[in-house]
Amino acid sequence: MTDTLDIKITKTTHSRLNETDFDNLPFGKTFSDHMFMADYSDGEWKNFQIIPYGEIGLSPAISALHYGQAFFEGLKAYKHADGQVSVFRPDKNAIRFNKSAGRLCMPELPEEIFIQSIAAVVDADRDWVPSKANHALYIRPFMFATDPYLGVTPSATYKYMVLIGPVGPYFSKTLRVKIETHYTRAAEGGFGYAKAAGNYGGSMLPARKAAEEGFDQLIWTDAKDHQYIEEMGAANVMFVLDGKLITPSTRDTILDGVTRDTVLTLAREWGMPVEERRVSVAEILEGAKNGKLQDAFGAGTAATIAPVGSISRDGEEYFLVDPKEREFSQKVLRELDAIKYGRVTDTHGWNYMV
Ligand SMILES: *Cc1c(COP(=O)(O)O)cnc(C)c1O
Questions:
Q1: How far is the C-alpha of 339 from the C-alpha of 351, rounded, in Å?
Q2: Phi and psi for 7 in degrees, rounded to 5?
Q3: pLDDT tens for residues 57-71?
Q4: What is the pLDDT of residues 118-149, one digit of tens each?
Q5: Taking the domains of the chain in order of start, what are their residue ranges?
């Protein structure tokens, strides 16, 4: 599947596979033996290579470090019971990759290069794909500006890279979440819809403050008056209110999640009423009070389906139904896993086999 892209492969002489503890995989700390790298200059992508994972030399003046011309993607590869490996919906990430690039004045990467680079590095390190339940290989493609020039202007040169590493479950418990009514993640006209590095730097202080107050996650609200729900941490957020699946519609301020799209697609196929629209904080808290809020969860590649246990606003905490008793999120999580790990027929063509 990697025959059209000319990739120079340099294998490591010392694999770290045997010294890696697959029973203890904190998210994002373990990297496989190899990584993918390509360069952009003179208006084209070149030097496609797979090299041993490790440090790379860069000028300290690169624009990525000073002005944030940097963005990323996140997707996963799964091992099926028969040993086959698939990547989940990489075509969707390829499209979003280029949306992020466009917003940051960075070059697009052809979809074939995105998908083939991922397939090639996953293939090189396929023994790193965990076979344990709820485990996967996390894939982190990213692009950053490399001109050594301190001018606030788009760089002429860039690097595109892919790192991969085995991961276990991201959240291990039901989340206590806080509705953020002071800080904002993104504003109209901004770049919240891009997976731009800067969006995450700005989210750390509010997240840390929430953690100090005992919360696991934040629910971001609109920048104007904090009346409408946008996302939960770095995941999309969904609710089942009175039998309907409700989620904020995508816009400038919201990341168009692949998990979000996958969940909405399955719900519609199951005949569940789905509403993508503005979701007010008031209706969600009202639903939590009167019992019409039957389910609430974060949806994302890293988090998968992360159940919300309680929602707080301005010191008042509203408790939701025990996650084990929630019909929708349980069912959708089961189905998602069954598709990704190849336990049911992939009728949507979502699994890209490596
Ligand atoms: C990555 C991300 C998501 C989830 O997107 P997926 O494609 O489902 O992984 C949602 N919101 C934000 C802010 C994100 O960064």
A1: 8
A2: -110, 130
A3: 999 999 999 999 999
A4: 999 999 999 999 999 999 999 999 999 999 99
A5: 8-169, 175-340
What CA–CA distance (Å, rounded) separates 222 from 27? Answer: 29
To which residue do tokens 């750390």 refer?
Answer: 204
Collect all residues with Cβ–Cβ distance below 8 Å to 94 and sequence separation of at least 6: 109, 111, 114, 115
Q: What is the pLDDT of residue 2?
A: 46
**What mean pLDDT do residues 191-208 have?**
97
CATH topology of domain 8-169: D-amino Acid Aminotransferase; Chain A, domain 1 (3.30.470)
Q: Write the CA distances from 134 to 60, 120, 166, 170, integer angstroms.
A: 39, 23, 11, 10
Q: What are phi and psi of 73, to 5 degrees?
A: -135, 170
The fourth-level CATH superfamily of domain 175-340 is D-amino Acid Aminotransferase, subunit A, domain 2 (3.20.10.10)
Separation of 300 CA from ligand 1 center, angstroms? 5
* Rounded-to-integer distance, Cα 237 and Cα 289, Å: 19
How far lies 266's CA from each of 27, 233, 339, in Å? 27, 23, 11
94 lines ligand 1 (CB under 6 A): no
Closest by Cα among 217, 245, 216, 250 to 332 = 245
CB count in 10 Å sphere of residue 327 = 12
Look at the alpha carbons of 327, 273, 194, 310 in this order and tell me if their dihedral is positive or negative: negative
Q: Determine the average pLDDT of the residues in 45-55.
A: 98
Which tokens is 29 given? 């700390």
- Residue of 95, 230, 255, 340 to mutate, ligand 1, most atoms within 8 A of C-beta: 255
Residue 299 CA, ligand 1 centroid: distance in Å: 8
User: Are 175 and 42 a contacting pair, CB within 8 Å?
Assistant: no
What length is written for the chain? 354
Contact 35, 163 (CB under 8 A): yes
Question: pTM for this one?
Answer: 0.96
